[in-house]
Amino acid sequence: MEGQEQLLFIDFEFTMPEGKSNPKGFYPEIIEVGIVSVKNQKIEEQFSSYVKPNQFPILSERCKTFLQISQEKIDQGMTFSELLSILSNYNQKAPTTVITWGNMDMKVLRHNCEMNKIEFPFTGKFRDLSMEYKKFFGDRNQTGLWKAVEEYGKKATGKHHRALDDALTTYNLFKLVEDDKRYLQKPTPPTIGDRIDLSEVLNKYAT
């Protein structure tokens, strides 16, 4: 692998069961992917696609309503194997750190790989930005992605629960947190009192 470090901001959307009566053997499958590739603090590439689920190809009404997604769009999506080829290509381009909001995206990807008997595509590091955010601000609970952006007084990108929009929002939030970390790590400049010994000055001018 060559080149500078690549940061991959990834968001997936998954299938959902209708309710408590899950189909036998049901598990969440990836149905939409959003990727933002960043090098040298600049976006190099964006990728977005729908993905056809293998095991349970028919979306539940709950899933279609929640994600505002149609069965037709999913039917026209890429296969899971094609998605894995794209993820592997990103992984091979440069040393890669995958950054997600929460740990569900990589958990579901791993499980989908196992169920489809395909090798997991990433070999680099992983960062859960929601946990970093929680630790940085001392929050007791993990904050939702869009709520976290609003706490910064910013607006999220596009529509919530659209994979590419959420990946872009994760990247924008990452930049905000990293800027704050750098700001807090800078040593504070010395005050005038630190620079000169005030007692000497006072003695000099004392009558």
Automatic annotation (TrEMBL):
<keyword id="KW-0269">Exonuclease</keyword>
<protein>
    <submittedName>
        <fullName>3'-5' exonuclease KapD</fullName>
    </submittedName>
</protein>
<dbReference type="Pfam" id="PF00929">
    <property type="entry name" value="RNase_T"/>
</dbReference>
<dbReference type="InterPro" id="IPR047201">
    <property type="entry name" value="ERI-1_3'hExo-like"/>
</dbReference>
<dbReference type="InterPro" id="IPR051274">
    <property type="entry name" value="3-5_Exoribonuclease"/>
</dbReference>
<dbReference type="InterPro" id="IPR036397">
    <property type="entry name" value="RNaseH_sf"/>
</dbReference>
<dbReference type="GO" id="GO:0004527">
    <property type="term" value="F:exonuclease activity"/>
</dbReference>
<keyword id="KW-0378">Hydrolase</keyword>
<feature type="domain" description="Exonuclease">
    <location>
        <begin position="6"/>
        <end position="183"/>
    </location>
</feature>
<dbReference type="InterPro" id="IPR012337">
    <property type="entry name" value="RNaseH-like_sf"/>
</dbReference>
<keyword id="KW-0540">Nuclease</keyword>
<dbReference type="InterPro" id="IPR013520">
    <property type="entry name" value="Ribonucl_H"/>
</dbReference>
